[in-house]
Design a protein that fits this description.
With about 350 residues, the protein is an alpha+beta fold. It has two domains: about 1-90; about 110-340, Bira Bifunctional Protein, Domain 2 (BirA Bifunctional Protein, domain 2, 2-Layer Sandwich), CATH 3.30.930. Helix content is about 40%, strand content about 20%. The termini are far apart. The structure holds 3,4-dihydroxyphenylalanine (DAH). 3,4-dihydroxyphenylalanine (DAH) binds near residues 177, 255, 261 and 314.
């Protein structure tokens, strides 16, 4: 039996010498030392031996299995090191190589400003009007007539409004206020919407004026809506948009579609109210017009002004962005100079 053990030991040893990988080592361990391996099947015969033989052969069997275990481990560790080194060599990362530059696009400042304003009003319970209620190509009917703008109002003049050639009564909208009419024609109060979009005016372009710009229209119609609600909502908007207290003022004004009407001015950020080119020396910049929806407008869309009241506002997105980021020329938004756009 001892001779048998020796034979197996020798053949295991030569197998180990021939092994070239961790996989070989695992196979050898399985073949000789596992529960079903060759040593175990022989060790089963121990029980038939005399006590004396059991002791010596048993001790011998233990000794050679232990030796084999050690040989296997040494070989295994060596292969492991070698394979690891090869892998490290192969997968080496050259950290001195400079990274690849991936240029990243940015959201245009007018888009991000619009998104921010929209989200503030959404948090105040306003929803965004469906796009079909806010078309850029409008009829005079929605852009002026239904908003109580008299036929001879100077804003209708071709000097202010772009009329579409060969299509009488069709204009590029000069204000987003027409969206109010579309919404009220299609929805019953309570109505609480905003409508962001582009508007067009035939202006001489300068630092403060462009021939198209962006507005966000707002409309809240319900029972018992008061001028106090209007002031509350707009003051809260200004507080949230500018983050900290910014000097603002409500100034009474006139719009054909609201009565009473007001305008909100925010102190000029360029000169802190001292007066400069941006605010044409006044220290203030007008950012929105607003008021209580005129009873004529409500009646026009079939809403009974004895039951419902409402307020409306229209704010200039460029103005609000200029005041927040201290941009002193509206043209910067539109001439796509990357040095400007990359700052946002
Ligand atoms: N549409 C006006 C403008 O473009 C702004 C405005 C004033 C909108 C009063 C309103 C409003 O909704 O109630 O100058």
């Amino acid at each position: 039996m001892k001779a048998q053990l020796e034979n197996i030991y020798n053949s295991a040893k030569s197998d180990i010498e021939k092994a070239v990988s961790i996989a070989d080592i695992d196979d050898i361990r399985l073949k000789y030392l596992s529960r079903k391996g060759e040593f175990n099947s022989i060790k089963k015969g121990l029980k038939d031996l005399s006590d004396e033989e059991k002791r010596t052969v048993g001790a011998f069997a233990n000794q050679i299995t232990q030796e084999l275990e050690e040989l296997l481990k040494t070989k295994h560790d060596a292969f492991y090191q070698k394979e690891l080194n090869e892998k490290l060599q192969k997968d080496r990362i050259d950290i001195t190589l400079s990274g690849k530059y991936t240029p990243q696009g940015k959201v245009h400042p007018l888009t991000s400003t619009t998104d921010e304003i929209v989200s503030i009003f959404q948090n105040l319970g306003f929803s965004v009007a469906a796009p079909e209620f806010s078309p850029e190509v409008e009829t005079e009917y929605y852009n002026f007539d239904m908003l109580n703008v008299p036929k001879d109002h100077p804003a209708r003049d071709v000097q202010d409004t772009f009329y579409v050639k060969d299509l009488p009564g069709v204009v590029l909208r000069s204000q987003t206020s027409g969206a109010q009419i579309h919404v009220m024609e299609n929805q019953k109060p309570p109505i609480k919407v905003i409508a962001p979009g582009r508007v067009y005016r035939n202006e001489n372009i300068n630092a403060r004026k462009n021939n198209f710009f962006h507005q966000i229209e707002g409309l809240y119609v319900d029972k018992n809506i008061t001028f106090g609600d209007l002031k509350g909502v707009l003051n809260e908007f200004i507080r949230l948009y500018f983050g900290s207290a910014r000097p603002t003022r409500f100034r009474s004004s006139f719009f054909p579609f609201t009565e009473p009407s007001a305008e909100v001015d925010v102190q000029c950020i360029m000169c802190q109210g001292k007066g400069c080119r941006t605010c044409s020396g006044t220290g203030w910049l007008e950012v929105l017009g607003c008021g209580m929806v005129d009873t004529n407008v409500l009646r026009g869309v079939g809403i009974d002004p004895d039951v419902y009241t409402g307020f409306a506002f229209g704010m200039g997105v460029e103005r609000l962005a200029m005041l927040k980021y201290a941009i002193d020329d509206i043209r910067l938004f539109f001439n796509n100079d990357k040095r400007f756009l990359e700052q946002f």
